[in-house]
Amino acid sequence: MNSTGTLTFVTTPWSVTLGVVIVLVTLVLAVMGYRRAINKKGAIGFLEVMRVLIAVCIAITLNQPEWRELYKPEHKPVLAVLHDQSKSMRTEDVLDPDNASAPPKARAAAVSRLTQPELWQPLKERLDVVFEPFSSTLSPADEATDINQALTKVVEEQKHLRAVVLATDGDWNTGKPPSEAATQLRMRSVPVLAIPAGAETKLPDVQVVSFDVPTFGVEGKPLRVPFVIESSLPREQFVTVEMTTGKGERLTKEVTLPPMGRVQDAIVWKPGSIGDATLTLTLPKVEGERFPDNNTMQAPVSIRKEELKVLIIEGLPRWEYRYMRNAMERDPGVDVNTLLFHPGLNKIGQGRGYLDAFPKQEDLSKYDVVFIGDVGIAPGMLTADQVAQIKKLVRDQASGLVFLPGFQGHQIQLATEPSPLSELYPVVLDTAQTKGWGSAAPGRFALTESGQRSLLTRLEDTDEASARVWASLPGFQWYAPALRAKAGSEILATHSSESGRYGRIPLLVSRTFGAGKILFMGSDGAWRWRRGVEDKYHYRFWGQVVRWMAYQRNMAAGGNLRLFYSPDRPRTGDVLTLNANALSTTGEPLRDAVVTAQIVAPSGKASSVRLLPAGEESYGLFTSTFTPTEPGEHKVRLTCPDSGAPLDATLSIQGSTREKLGQPARHDVLREIATLTRGQVMNLLDPVALVNAIGALPEPEPEERRVLIWGHPAWAGLMLLLMAVFWIGRKMAGAF
Fold it and tell me: What is the rounded CA–CA span in Å between residue 292 and residue 296?
């Protein structure tokens, strides 16, 4: 660097005046003192000279002397051209204003013009031009955009940065906000010339947004596969959605897409054989659609033979219990055991499938769903310890729990303190009316919005048909004394006509507790649904209840190990919660064991995850987290030395959806960056104007370095030295 230095003063009228006054007064006093001296005139003269020097230093200090050096850089400034290479840049929506009939170009293709060295040739004498592609630091990199990281990186690497050209669609979806890096550039006086790539409005398109295939299905049982389709067409569009199974099966469904909206629907498939399958959802290309590449989505599913274990606990054998138990026993995928109390008879029901006593802890852990009828904590019924075991089963082993209160009102003992199940109970019961309410006129269920979408209440294949069925079902003549649903619960159905001080009476309420699910059924009239249709809706409802509540628990199970996770359809970048149940070789839940999951990604990269006990009172539950970075099938081996054989399972990870084709460009993000850095937004289709704008930037000002002489330690030391010499000289000359 070339440098030039100058001595300058930061003066004000009062500092100059005061300094001159101090020097003149001191000079007059010094002359007078020297003239009055009779002896040692040489020493006195020296002291007076020192006095004047000190006064001069004080006057100089008051006017703040500085040494300024200007450094002219020897290197040419750098112009950084950052161009986005993420997946969204493949969107073809860059139109040529001079040729409206020409097909739109991809954003990446339009931006590629800025990476040609010939474009920047006029600036070669003034600037060094560097080209920097960017996307993200994730894997794969083009599945996300991190603008902040790209700007921060160029600031760190280029010490002589003069300006930045940022060509992107602005769709940042990972990392810190770009405004943070823009602030750094502002502090360094580096403007950003932002070039938006892509249209600011969405072009006509239809796409499959999600295809939520369950992790597994059951052979011979209907499997509902939800999907979401989004349309940016300016008109209503009828399409035929097609789902193929990879085994020659083909299912279709007619869907009406609203203009500029989305639709949620589902296809019902009944798998006919056991094994793994890949389901593919396809939309036909519609007229005017710009991006047909996003019309297809795939997801794997495992079809199994079902073996669910259900425990029913009941008091008097009322009609609801009898018909529900028959429905379970006739279901080939359900194994039912019953614990039937006879209040007042001091005996427990006996016969096929009946238990002589409440199951032991190791036997209880085998049940996927527990139904509790009109029983409570009382002699001849359940004990507090048995109820606590049921709570642990739900909380730690992902079992389902169904509350079926009856007109005897015994469940009030379970729903209120000090019952261990009071925390799980999804509704608040009226303690003043424990036996519920009866009526001569039959009541009916009224589905809520959540109930209309729930798999539990699906009695037909479409939402509309299912709603019509619920409206026509035979009514009930008794309902539980439920006042309101507790916080965190989801109301699926209410009484169609009866209300309390909290609103409509909740009759069908669900919630989660720990790893398990809970359902409250507030009437005992479901057995009446058989009227005129036999078992069609009655069997379907209770079969759906059992399978919905046991779904998570049965994601992967074998031997003495069970693996379940959330979310059940994870994507790359999601934090996946891994839960495992570990049982000893005798079937007893382990409380302290070494549980490890070895996870192998599709690329072959292996990870080891240690699952820890969920808590001091955990009932065989071990948990940890894992964040997948690769899409595809992940092989999992769950091991526990105390449980015997390992469990092998598969995690299907869907690819990231951060980068979507056809989305509008974020011009607002680029305008903000340009404003913060005192740059400007340029037109992608006019590169000549961009070059001219950069050429018009002023030359960078020389770097200035300032040394504050008046505040420098050396200056202070000089003044102290002069005063010390003056004081010592006075003592030696005999002056006091």
Answer: 8
